[in-house]
Amino acid sequence: MHIFVLGTGMIGTTVVTELAKYAGVKTITAVDINQASIDKCLAIANDPQVIGKVAALATEADIAEVLKGADLAIGCLPHSLSLPAIKAAISSKCHLVDLVGSHFPEKLALHEQAQQAGVLIVPGCGVAPGITNFLAAQGIELLDEAQEAMLACGGIPRYPDPPLGYQVVYRLESLLGLYTKPATIIRNGKIMELAPLSDLVEMTFSEPVGLCETVITDAHSTAFMLQGKVENLVERTVRYPGHWDKMRVLSELGFLDETPVAIEDTVISPKLFAQKVLIPKMSGHSIEDITVLRVEVSGIKHGVSTKHTWEMIDLYDHERKITSMAKTTAIPALLISQWITTKKITETGVIPIEGLIVQERFHPFLTELSQLGIEIEYKEETFVEKE
């Protein structure tokens, strides 16, 4: 089995390192445009079955050329390259597990092409989108009538620094995309969009996290996959108090706009300028981070109001020496990859994780997540109305 990992940044390197531990994987090719990034990845993986490959990854044709001879690929590329990677995988007849969940309708439109090619494309297969998605789907399956689904997740610093109380745990490009993209939700059974940074709500987690704030962000594939199964669904992103108000001010002042502006002889988008300015403000003095997750699904079961809740508070992994965000994003992708290669998953087409890890596959997948260090707590509550 020959697996390609596209992109050797923080999360791609974690995928390579963890994937090398599995029996049945003959060769892992780590692909990036940057030799230094590949060298660092190979040094961390320190495994003879991992080889590096410098290659262009800018277009669908570039990626298709890379994937010749690959059985399966794991996409750890920027959002802008996700759709080209999916098209390239289909044309190369290569299974693809992709971390990026954006532009889902365009990806779903390729479902029949993927089926004809005999491959499975799994978009949005990290922590959020990813783990949150299949937890919500399972919660809905457990109810006779699903009324509300709330998916909350956030990567936050263990030791927050002012002024934003946040440190970058993945690409800043992707982060600002999350902050500026309209949020797809389900309301009263219908898919609709809300303005970015909508509906600030407090949320409290146990120590060492405490009080946080959330806003509604894009629900990615869940809005489309779970429509008709739940009346209302939103996804929320978690930050420490004060962060969202400051980012909203930047947005309102136009610093997150993409329309270029002229500054003397230079033309630049405010968003790109903001990225350059914000990077040092979001670096933090410590690499330690926390990933928090909470999924609540409520409705009716046997005539009784019932709520299912899953929660995760995951800390920086000192044993692996990787961030929590890297671990919780990479491990679901490599587990799905393993399940595809071992024929535990045999479907073809474009199917996000919430279409795969439900019902009889749900608990075995959670068990394997736990074995790899991702612990998710669960509780069921029932509410009897007083007469």
UniProtKB/TrEMBL annotation:
InterPro entries: AASS, NAD(P)-bd_dom_sf, Sacchrp_dh-like_C, Sacchrp_dh_NADP-bd. Residues 3-122 form the Saccharopine dehydrogenase NADP binding domain. It comes from the Bacteria. Keywords: Oxidoreductase. Residues 126-374 form the Saccharopine dehydrogenase-like C-terminal domain. It holds the Pfam family Sacchrp_dh_NADP. This is L-lysine dehydrogenase. It comes from Planococcus kocurii.
